[in-house]
Amino acid sequence: MEDTNKKHWENVYETKNPDQVSWTQEKPQTSLDFIHSFGLGKDARIIDIGGGDSNLVDFLLDEGYRNISVLDISSKALKRARARLGSKADKVTWINSDITAFEPRETYDIWHDRAAFHFLTTPEQVSQYIKIAGKSVIGFMILGTFSKNGPAKCSGLDIQQYDDKSLSAKFESDFEKIKCLTEDHTTPFGTVQNFLFCSFKKFKR
Questions:
Q1: CA-CA-CA-CA torsion for 139, 73, 28, 22, nearest 10 degrees?
Q2: Contacts for 156-163 with beta carbons within 8 Å, 24 or more apart?
Q3: CA 111 to chain centre
Q4: Cα gap 85→88, rounded to integer Å
Q5: Strand pairing of 137-146 and 108-113?
Q6: 3-class SS at 172?
Q7: Which of 138, 199, 185, 196 lies closest to 23 in space, CA to CA?
Q8: Residue range 4-24: average pLDDT?
């Protein structure tokens, strides 16, 4: 399964430009707003799960954040992001991994994911994700998924839709929900996708 997923995403980033994929955002304002809401300093350890060639890392670097990691299953996506950032790319930790096979070497103050979780469609994949996040997050988590009013597929793949209640329930053993909101994302080709964003705080043990 992991090899199949990797081949799919390598092909996507090999054959499509940012203006040809639905998830591209010029400025990821909602994600930035959530990150700012936690009130952490510029040394906060932030990881963007399924970051691909998202622009989030650009804005975080411009704001002065110093401990940023970007994880993606596609090496081509990470290569594109690094090329775009130029010399700034050296300030980022790039991790080429399937999230369900990720073995973190550090803990994170902020875990951000607008791209990966809703592609996990089996109980085993979801359980593994929850386990990894619970182990490696010591501060906050931001999850953006397709809502119940969003698409049932993305990039030709089935996805899992969520609402406030069902998403919060997945993480209730390790995280307390802070806030959820829905947002319409307009794709580069003019269609509208409804997203659910939720922020969570790790329970203190």
A1: -140
A2: 156/8, 157/8, 157/119, 158/121, 159/118, 159/119, 159/121, 160/117, 160/118, 160/119, 160/120, 160/121, 160/126, 161/118, 162/118, 162/196, 163/196
A3: 8
A4: 5
A5: parallel
A6: coil
A7: 185
A8: 55
Query: Residues 72, 147, 137, CA angle at the centre, nearest 5°?
Result: 45
| pLDDT tens, residue by residue, 151-200 | 666 666 677 889 999 999 999 999 999 999 998 766 655 576 688 999 99
Which residues neighbour 99 within 8 Å (Cβ) at sequence distance 6 or greater?
49, 50, 71, 73, 113, 116, 120, 129, 132
| Burial group, residue 87, by CB count within 10 angstroms (0-12, 13-18, 19+) | exposed
- The residue assigned the tokens 């990720």 is 102
Taking the C-alpha atoms of residue 68 and residue 91, their distance in angstroms, rounded to an integer, is: 8
Yes or no: domain 2-18+30-202 corresponds to CATH 3.90.230.10? no
Angle between helices 75-85 and 2-15 (to 10 degrees): 40
Kind of pairing between the strands at 153-154 and 157-158: antiparallel
Give the containing element (helix H, strand E) for 123.
helix 123-136
51-96 confidence digits (pLDDT tens):
887 889 999 999 999 999 999 988 888 998 999 999 999 999 999 9
Q: State the Cα–Cα distance between residues 25 and 17, nearest whole angstrom.
A: 13
**Is residue 105 very low, low, confident or very high in pLDDT (cuts 50, 70, 90)?**
very high
Each domain of the chain, given as residue ranges in start order, spans: 2-18+30-202
